[in-house]
Amino acid sequence: MSTGPDRSEVQQLFALFSHVFDNGNLDNLGLVFTKDAVIDLRSGPGREFDGLEAIAEFVTALGRDSPDHQTLDTVLLPGSPEDSGTARARSRYLAILPDGSVHNGDYYDDLRLTADGWRIARRVSVPRYPLGAHAPVPEGLLDAWRVDKGR
Which CATH number is associated with domain 7-129? Predict the structure, then answer.
């Protein structure tokens, strides 16, 4: 029975995200995401990308305008009590844009253990700064990532 990912596995996974995603390395998206992964962006009007193919199209569309992502301050949380092959992670991110401006926010990740190791099954990206128009976060969505839950 799995007790969830080791912290070093998650750090490696998030480091791979930055290298694979930011460098447009489409052939290695499967090292970071499950085949049915979802990226839910809460910036601007909000967008959602379902599955590796849609994520690859998104990465390709960003091209040279892809932000340079840094994942920080990750807190690991238990996943579903019914499935020991799941976990959650809550992280802060910094994204440096091509013009040198910096954005930051939070990642809320559902992680899943696959035959090839831990992968991101769902990533909700919620911006903090710069202040501006952000897509609303559905009420209750982030409750599972509360660090004080269960205290």
Answer: 3.10.450.50
